[in-house]
């Protein structure tokens, strides 16, 4: 007893020290927010300019993405449905030739791009869409996801078509390259360069915002929630949390796309399977309620009750969620897919159309079904991650801990992919060199710490604005270059039909290995 009494003054001193550190950290958080907020607010207002439609504010940038997805779906003859089975065979490696130029396999490229899109939007964003638009938002979200598959096909085919193969065998590709090269082929080099530079600047901003600060911020918030909320020992220590996360991210991204792909090819399937299995179990516990849930989704899509804007309001919420989640038309995924080993650009476009399907049609829909079937969206006062957590908690009281882990994993994998997107945009502007790459990576890691330290509002606004600004230049380029994509697809299909390109004999491949 006397021993404990002797420790009491030390314990009291430590408590005072921690309280003092916490107060300083909170002051630093607020100071950073005060500086950044006034800078980013005008940018956000411009990018997300909205017009009133049937009583609901409709961001024009969402319309820009959805219209493009519809145009590409029609122009390529519903390529996302015609070649879905072939996309699966490509991912399985049935047509892979290891001698082709590139750095990663079809599966690794898909996993890397998916790790950039499957994230907090699949958990928190869907909850927001369903809570604002009702169950019917799920229907429009799925439709927008299916349409977005054609946009991914278009941009990722161009990514491979116009990529650069560097002297050391590494790849540099993405919208920066197909905008500058594709327009130059038609005598519009100046316009292509302007669009490419605009895209690259926005991609760097997006990598630091949505691909980094937002992820760090939400990870920290979730860690605080599961360790006691306001009473958590992590409160006020966002900067310390960010430092630890930056160290882990740094260990992976220093190895480039091959290192990132090795991590994401294991992490993405694992986290997707865990999340989907948890959702399926909850649907199983509520099996009798499934017909009513689907009824609510269909009825809510066409005859919504008590939703602002009626059908249009529900449609907007669904379309917004899909567009925000799968990034179809943004151009980011084309950077990752450009690094694939292939001699046929169309193959990677076909593989890439699986992305919105997995991200939106499968994972987002699972989240929405759990929220609808458990009735969680009708609980007042809940939103975002908390709403999804509540829905899953109805079956698993311990699920918030799993969700916290999922948020950390999603955020971590998203940071890895976006670090690569930002890096390639950076080297496009400042040149390919080790020194240039190191400078960008250090900046990226510094913003992990800043993101974990900032309050939520400015982080979300800035991240969304930068990422969606990328779509302005990218979709202009896609419209201009879509005849090139059509020719690439026609040539590839002709080679498949003639037998010039045939499935790899896996048995012979193993014998030669």
Listing every helix as H and every strand as E from the N terminus to the C terminus, the arrangement reads HEEHHHHHHEEHHHHHHHHHHHHHH
Instruction: Please list the strands of the largest sheet in the order they lie side by side.
Output: 1-2
What is the distance, rounded to the nearest whole angstrom, between the alpha carbons of the first and last residues? Answer: 70 Å
Mean pLDDT: 83
Gyration radius, rounded: 23 Å
Characterize the largest beta sheet: strand count, sense, and whether it forms a barrel: 2 strands, antiparallel
Question: Explain this structure to me?
Answer:
- The protein has helices at 2-47, 60-75, 79-82, 84-92, 106-117, 120-133, 137-161, 175-185, 189-226, 238-253, 256-285, 290-302, 310-326, 332-337, 345-352, 354-373, 384-393, 399-430, 434-453, 456-498, 506-512, and strands at 50-53, 56-59, 164-165, 171-172.
- Residues 1-21 have low confidence and may be disordered.
- With 513 residues, it is an all-alpha fold.
């Amino acid at each position: 007893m006397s021993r404990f009494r002797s420790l009491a003054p030390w314990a009291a001193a430590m408590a005072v020290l921690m309280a003092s550190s916490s107060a300083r950290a909170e002051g630093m958080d607020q100071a950073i927010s005060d500086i950044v907020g006034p800078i980013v607010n005008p940018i956000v207002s411009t990018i997300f300019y909205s017009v009133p439609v049937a009583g609901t504010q409709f961001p024009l940038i969402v319309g820009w993405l959805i219209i493009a997805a519809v145009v590409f779906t029609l122009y390529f003859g519903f390529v996302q449905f015609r070649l879905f089975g072939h996309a699966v065979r490509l991912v399985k490696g049935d047509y892979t030739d290891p001698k082709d130029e590139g750095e990663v396999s079809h599966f690794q490229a898909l996993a890397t791009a998916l790790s950039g899109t499957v994230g907090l939007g699949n958990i928190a964003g869907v909850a927001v869409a369903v809570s604002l638009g009702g169950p019917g938002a799920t229907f429009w979200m799925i439709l927008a996801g299916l349409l977005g598959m054609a946009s991914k096909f278009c941009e990722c085919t161009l990514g491979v078509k116009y990529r650069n193969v560097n002297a050391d065998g590494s790849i540099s590709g993405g919208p920066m390259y197909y905008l500058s090269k594709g327009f130059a082929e038609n005598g519009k080099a100046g316009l292509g360069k302007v669009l490419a530079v605009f895209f690259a600047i926005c991609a760097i901003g997006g990598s630091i915002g949505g691909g980094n600060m937002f992820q760090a911020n939400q990870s920290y918030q979730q860690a605080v929630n599961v360790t006691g909320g306001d009473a958590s020992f992590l409160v006020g220590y966002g900067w310390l949390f960010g430092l630890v996360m930056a160290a882990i991210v740094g260990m992976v991204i220093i190895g480039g796309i091959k290192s990132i792909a090795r991590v994401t090819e294991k992490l993405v399937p694992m986290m997707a399977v865990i999340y989907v299995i948890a959702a399926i179990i909850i649907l199983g516990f509520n099996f009798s309620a499934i017909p009513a849930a689907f009824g609510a989704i269909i009825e809510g899509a066409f005859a919504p009750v008590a939703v602002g804007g009626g059908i249009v309001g529900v449609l907007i919420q669904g379309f917004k969620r899909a567009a925000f989640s799968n990034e179809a038309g943004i151009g980011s995924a084309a950077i990752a897919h450009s690094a694939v080993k292939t001699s046929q650009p169309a193959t990677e476009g076909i593989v890439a159309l699986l992305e919105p399907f997995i991200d939106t049609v499968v994972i987002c829909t699972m989240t929405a079904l759990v929220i609808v079937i458990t009735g969680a969206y009708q609980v007042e006062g809940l939103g975002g991650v908390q709403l999804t957590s509540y829905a899953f908690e109805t079956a698993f009281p311990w699920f918030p801990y799993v969700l916290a882990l999922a948020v950390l994993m999603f955020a971590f994998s998203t940071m890895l992919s976006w670090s690569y997107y930002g890096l390639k945009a950076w080297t496009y502007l400042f040149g390919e060199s080790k020194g240039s790459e190191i400078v960008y990576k250090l900046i990226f890691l510094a913003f992990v710490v800043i993101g974990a330290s900032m309050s939520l509002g400015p982080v979300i606004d800035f991240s969304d604005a930068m990422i969606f600004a990328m779509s302005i230049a990218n979709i202009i380029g896609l419209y201009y270059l879509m005849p090139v994509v059509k020719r690439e697809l026609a040539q590839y299909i002709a080679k498949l039909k003639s037998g010039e390109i045939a499935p790899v004999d896996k048995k012979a491949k193993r014998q030669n290995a």
